[in-house]
Amino acid sequence: PSRRATSRLDRAKHAAMVERNNVAVEVSDLRKNYGGQTVLNGLDLTVRVGEVVALLGPSGSGKSTLLRCINHLEDWDSGMVRVGGRRLGHRDDGKPLSPRAIAHERASVGVGMVFQQFNLFSHLSAKENVAGPLRWVHGMTRVDADRRARELLERVGLSHRADALPRHLSGGQQQRVAIARALAPNPSVLLLDEPTSALDPELVGEVLEVIRRLAVDDGLTMIIATHQIRFADEVADRVAFLSGGSILEEGPAHEILTNPSHPVTQRFLSVME
Ligand code: ADP
Ligand code: MG
Q: Major location, coarse class (predicted)?
């Protein structure tokens, strides 16, 4: 079968597995070191289908590294990451995946990612930023990719800016294009790494509103690293508080945010308010 056929088949298998056990992402005893430094220290996290999980925690606690592992942009030293029931980086014969195989895995496993710094292609229009990867990575025809890109730009309120280059868009608009691009292949999970941290304060609201709609109206499964406590309280089902590369405390968002039990979480939240 062609690569496209394989990837579609993989996806169908996936969807079936997700359905069966209702788990979108499972991270188990994940460990990672940079040089001598422990960045992820036996981290466990399970995210159910349709759930929105906010990752809170001080700078350097491992939020970005965790998200990058779930998208397999980073490798880890030990432990396991499953997305939709599929174990990442794992071949039947136990050998590590090649970079090419990892890229293929990333395209077929259905994880989308939004970065703090948008990471748009600066020489491409808003529409091309969304449509391009659909053709290059997902093998869509130009007509289908353009149609899908228009649909997504409309969903983030940017139909009228489809032909604009990123530098002619505000930060909030750029981040909305980045969200459209991440959603275009219809991911089963969307990861957002401090999606509003690089924005001027007056542009934060429009991006949070798009994310809120994805959570509330579309029931998208999301993991969001954020410092926006009020937003987390409003949108997240669950909050996981990271410290030193593991989860110190997690639970229903409102409960953790209003009544944290761990002193470190209490201190962090009191400073954030
Ligand atoms: P957070 O997103 O919570 O701020 P990160 O995951 O970015 O935390 O970083 C966790 C720790 O890993 C930090 O101490 C950081 O300095 C370190 N780190 C992150 N990326 C790298 C890298 N590429 N090389 C070396 N150290 C890194
Ligand atoms: Mg980070």
A: membrane
- Nearest atom in ligand 1 to the alpha carbon of residue 55 is 3
The two three-digit tokens of residue 162, written as one number:
């489809």
How far is the C-alpha of 158 from the C-alpha of 153, rounded, in Å? 5
pLDDT digit string, tens, across residues 109-126? 899 999 999 999 999 999
3-class SS of residue 15: helix
The pLDDT of residue 11: 57
Q: Is the CB of 153 under 6 A from ligand 1?
A: no
Give the mean pLDDT of the chain: 90
d(CA 206, CA 44): 32
CA–CA separation, 188 vs 200, rounded Å?
A: 30
Q: Which residues surround ligand 2, an ion (CB under 5 A)?
A: 63-64
Q: Are 228 and 249 in contact (CB under 8 A)?
A: no
Ligand 2 midpoint to CA 63 (Å): 5
- This prediction has a pTM of 0.90
| Ligand 1 and 64: CB distance under 6 A | yes
Structural tokens at position 207: 């991006």
| Ligand with minimal distance to 43 CA | 1
Pocket test residue of 40, 65, 75 for ligand 1, highest count of atoms within 8 A of CB: 65
- pLDDT score at 15: 59
Quick check: CB of 188 below 6 Å from ligand 1? no
Note whether 143 and 42 are within 8 A (CB). no
Q: According to DSSP H, which parts of 184-252 are helical? A: 201-216, 229-235
In short, whether 61's Cβ falls inside 6 Å of ligand 1 is: yes
